[in-house]
Design brief:
The complex is a heterodimer of chains A (496) and B (216). Chain A is built from 24 helices and no strands. Chain A has 496 residues and is an all-alpha fold. Bound molecules: guanosine-5'-diphosphate and magnesium ion. Magnesium ion binds next to α1 of chain B. Chain A: Keywords: GTPase activation.
Chain lengths: 496, 216
């Protein structure tokens, strides 16, 4: 499975190369013709193209004028770690290219996992010949999942997951099962793996780890989560007591929440809406320099979707299932509480990296847009000249791309896949890498756009139905193209 | 593409696909507090529809609408190409607004009849545009009170006071039910200066076609 995927990517990529006629595209990195998994290969090499440069990190928090917000970007890692030549275990395992081809070493590696006495026994697939009725209820072990999300590892149908995700699942699994000695190293491995997508069952855990919210370390995890959730509950009761609510903020949030993904039943449920409103409100009050800005409401939904899903049986579908009845059942409140607090903290972590997108005059967005212009000029000058000739300014279509992180351009499922990669590039994924993704997205339509005049250009660019047929593969191709542009033009970005 | 169709029942425009002899581009901008119904008004005008679940506008949205009018005396058909920038209302986006109103001929300032604080925001925009107009620009300013379907005329006194003071044409609409929207855009069409009309591309296209193939 993984193997087929890998090869498919290569063909797709070579087509793109051919079309855009960028002869020396790959040579710039000296990595030969390694498109899609390029990333995991160059990772940790001296090139370290995919690591935030010192400059980008330094510039990312110039606007942190609030005192109430936790100091962002202060991870436990030492800065030096970032550029260290750490070849992750995974790449050492003889995995050259493509990563999931299951060569001898990998097979050995796999067997070693499966055959470990401690590891989960693999179910015989023959047992499940008849289809069982759909199970859309809350997981029975939801209480232990709330307490320690990693307790889910003992409850996984490993064979089933392997069927879907191939070797990739094993790799995630083994990292999570590890006796974590070096947290940064573990995180590094998770980042490398996550770039190519995270299995659904593990997504909540991995996202929270990549955001440095959930400690990887076993000994700290449970206590830390408990503390964070308590802290959130506390600010809730403080902010909502004796109606000292900031009414302007609350008013705007209460207008926007009913029209946030309103066509999805899940997001139109009042309990979910109330919960999202509280998250936004607390965040806004704790970050007075930006306050609540339209578009931040969109950013809550991927977290909410992924975290809630974690507590539901496999057949439950956030996009389709009605939760009216479910929301009356036992356990729902407990789950919602945990999801709400976790979402709040994760949203905070994310926004810490792009806070100047939302402060007065939104300098972060203007900088991202001017970077997008610069890079697009490099990649396809004919296109940027065409846009200019017809009087179309980037800000007229790219403002929304930046303000909502492209969320308005893709279906939520695709955004979630995209965030696997963005989060693996955390903390600069939503900031710098995003600009390259926007560039790749624009280039997708380059030939069509060159045939259009102002009116059609703007109509086409703001119309999100152009991606309605997209699937995960299209997103992955987009991300890999963005990665190439990033490795070529990263030094062109300006940070002021 | 956006020509009046048969579904467009309320429209008083011709149901045929007319061939216009003259046409003009008309740039319009909508300004006003968030959630007063700017986007809904545009949707009502452009596609005669209302979507209560529609997401909030980010930055600004561009909408076009071809609008045909027939001169009752000469029977001449004129085409107006509406090019509408529907802006986002939140404070944070305010600095983007000049980019969108700079080239506009008409500014529709919208407030919510049931939310009197949104009228204050409307006054702010009118003041800003009038200041801009003093520098040799001429944006026609219209004031619209939307959501008339919800309004119980509770704020009428204050509204009429303000309207009198501001001396701008004022309209009441409901984007939801469609009332007042036609009147608003008819007013705009009627006040278009004849001088901006040029010979229509549609006629030109037709001429070319008939030259190319004389049969059928
Ligand atoms: N009852 C009623 N609701 C309206 C009307 N126009 C808009 N709305 C609602 O008001 C909210 C904001 O509308 P929207 O067009 O997005 O406002 P905008 O932010 O000014 O563009 C939405 O929930 C609409 O459904 C109206 O005429 N009547
Ligand atoms: Mg709007």
């Amino acid at each position: 499975m993984g193997r087929r995927k890998g090869y498919q990517k290569i063909t797709e990529m070579s087509q793109v190369d051919h079309k855009s006629n960028k002869g020396g595209l790959m040579q710039a990195n000296g990595s030969g013709s390694l498109p899609f998994f390029f990333k995991s290969l160059t990772n940790g090499s001296s090139n370290s193209v995919d690591r935030p440069s010192i400059d980008s990190r330094r510039s990312s928090h110039r606007w942190d004028s609030e005192t109430s917000s936790p100091k962002p970007m202060k991870f436990q890692d030492d800065d030096e770690d970032w550029d260290d030549d750490i070849l992750s275990d995974l790449t050492i395992k003889g995995e050259k290219f493509p990563p999931f081809r299951g060569d001898d070493d990998t097979t050995k590696y796999l067997n070693s996992i499966v055959n470990q006495p401690d590891s989960i026994s693999v179910k015989e697939p023959t047992v499940e010949l008849q289809k069982s009725p759909l199970n859309k209820s809350i997981r029975k072990n939801f209480k232990s999942l709330i307490k320690d999300p990693l307790s889910l590892l003992s409850d996984l149908d490993l064979a089933e997951e392997k069927k879907i995700y191939g070797v990739k699942f094993e790799k995630f699994y083994s990292i999570l099962q590890d006796e974590q000695t070096n947290e940064e190293q573990e995180l590094n491995k998770l980042q490398n793996l996550s770039w190519n997508g995270i299995p659904k069952r593990l997504r909540m855990i991995i996202w929270q780890m990549l955001l440095r919210y959930m400690p990887i370390n076993n000994s700290r995890r449970v206590a830390q989560l408990e503390r964070k959730r308590q802290e959130y509950q506390q600010s809730l009761s403080e902010m909502f007591k004796d109606s000292k609510k900031d009414n302007n903020v609350w008013h705007q949030i209460s207008i926007d929440i009913p029209r946030t993904n309103a066509h999805v039943k899940f997001f139109s449920n009042t309990k979910i809406q109330d919960s999202m409103s509280r998250i936004l409100y607390i965040w806004a009050i704790r970050h007075p320099a930006s306050g609540y800005v339209q578009g931040i409401n969109d950013l809550v939904t991927p977290f909410f979707h992924v975290f809630f899903e974690n507590y539901m049986e496999n057949d439950f579908n956030v996009q389709e299932d009605d939760i009216e009845e479910l929301s009356q059942s036992t356990g729902f409140e407990d789950i919602l509480k945990a999801v709400e607090a976790d979402t709040f903290w994760c949203l905070t972590k994310l926004l810490d990296t792009i806070q100047d997108n939302y402060i007065h005059e939104q300098p972060g967005i203007h900088r991202q847009i001017s970077n997008l212009v610069k890079i697009s000029e490099k990649v396809d000058n004919a296109l940027t000249e065409h846009l200019e000739e017809h009087g179309l300014q980037f800000i007229q279509f790219a403002f929304r791309w930046m303000n909502c992180l492209l969320m308005r351009e893709f279906r939520l499922e695709l955004v979630i896949r995209m965030w696997d990669t963005y989060l693996s590039e955390f903390p600069q994924g939503f900031k710098d890498f995003h600009v390259f993704v926007c560039c790749a997205f624009l280039m997708k339509f380059s030939e069509e756009l060159k045939e259009m005049e102002f009116q059609d250009l703007i109509m086409f660019l703001q119309d999100n139905s152009k991606t309605s047929h997209w699937n995960d593969k299209d997103i992955e191709l987009l991300l890999s193209e963005a990665f190439i542009w990033q490795s070529l033009y990263k030094n062109q970005l300006t940070y002021t | 593409m956006a020509r009046p169709s048969v579904q467009n029942k309320r429209s008083s425009q011709s149901l045929f696909t007319p061939i216009a002899s003259k046409e003009a581009d008309l740039k319009i901008v909508l300004l006003g507090e968030s959630a007063v119904g700017k986007s809904s008004l545009v949707t009502r005008f452009a596609s005669n529809a209302f979507d209560a679940d529609k997401e909030s506008t980010i930055g600004a949205a561009f909408i076009v609408k071809k609008y045909y009018v027939t001169d009752p005396e000469t029977n001449e058909v004129k085409l107006i190409n509406f090019q509408i920038w529907d802006t986002a209302g939140q404070e944070r986006y305010q600095s983007l607004a000049p980019m969108y109103y700079r080239n506009a001929s008409v500014a529709i300032i919208v407030f919510d009849l049931t939310d009197i604080s949104s009228l204050t925001k409307a006054e702010f925009w009118i003041a800003e545009l009038e200041a801009y107009n003093r520098e040799e620009h001429k944006i026609q300013i219209l004031l619209v009170g939307n959501k008339s379907d919800l309004s119980k005329n509770e704020n009428d006194n204050q509204i009429s006071e303000t309207v009198e003071r501001l001396k701008v044409p004022y309209f009441k609409t409901s984007a939801k039910e469609g009332t007042g929207v036609d009147e608003l855009f008819k007013y705009i069409v009627d006040s278009i200066d004849d001088g901006i009309f040029v010979e229509s591309r549609e006629t030109l296209d037709l001429d070319q076609k008939s030259k190319k193939s004389s049969c059928c």
